[in-house]
Specification:
The structure is a single chain. The N and C termini lie close together (about 5 Å). This protein is globular. The chain has a single domain, classed as Maf protein (Alpha-Beta Complex), CATH 3.90.950. By secondary structure, it is an alpha/beta fold. It contains 5 helices and 6 strands; from the N terminus they run βαβαβαβββαα. Bound molecules: inosinic acid.
């Protein structure tokens, strides 16, 4: 069966495709929202990652008639009471890019000592098909550095040190990041579900 990823973010698409393909789930073809230019944008106004992911997956599945997979994810920083959270993509304003968001985060944490810089990435993946919706979660604990390091990945990767590593996500290979990341973990939960149910998308 075909599947549509409810995102236009090409970097996310690449990551998700790679993880789905590595996991041996047999997907005939993976579409993205770029294949459906008329698909209406969904307002990500939920209070949780789960609310947003479900909303996106249901809307895209209804529009395309296909199984839709949506992810909503973000960074939660303890000393900022969980911010940027669901606002991660728009932390520095509605049209802010990754660099502006990252700079704002570093500014706000300028005086925060090393031991108080704990954070985690969280991800909820929602799968919607007809009346069925399932959600899968993944988390990765870590801490926020003082300056960007590394060039791969996207978003807050250059300042996020996963627990137990002295390299940021942006200094890791795609394979290494996928093995540790919130999105990788949530997608592997999704794969487990498909394998247990004997479903093949
Ligand atoms: P979403 O597209 O609404 O899920 O927004 C997620 C935002 O959270 C992204 O724009 C990034 O700022 C941040 N984010 C989520 N996952 C990651 C990741 O794996 N690395 C770096 N930043 C991420």
């Amino acid at each position: 069966m075909d599947i549509v990823l409810a995102t236009r973010n090409e970097k996310k698409v690449k990551e998700i495709k790679r993880i789905i393909e590595e996991g041996g789930v047999s997907v005939t073809k993976i579409f993205t929202l770029n294949d459906f230019p008329g698909c209406p944008d969904v307002q990500e106004d939920g209070k949780t990652f789960e609310e947003n992911a479900v909303k996106k997956a249901v809307s895209v599945s209804q529009y395309t008639g296909m199984t839709a997979l949506a992810d909503d994810s973000g960074l939660e920083v303890d000393v900022l009471n969980g911010a940027p959270g669901v606002l991660s993509a728009r932390y520095a304003g509605d049209s802010a890019d990754d660099m502006a968001n990252l700079k704002k985060l570093l500014r706000e944490m300028e005086h925060v000592p090393y031991e108080k810089r704990r954070a985690r990435f969280a991800c909820c993946i929602a799968m919607a098909y007809k009346d069925t919706v399932k959600t899968f979660f993944g988390y990765v604990e870590g801490s926020i550095g003082r300056e960007p390091q590394g060039k791969s990945g996207f978003g807050y990767d250059p300042v996020f040190y996963p627990e137990g590593y002295d390299r940021t996500f942006a200094q890791m290979s795609n394979e290494k990041k996928n093995a540790l990341s919130h999105r990788g973990k949530a997608l592997r939960e999704f794969q487990k579900y498909l394998n247990e149910k004997g479903l093949n998308l």
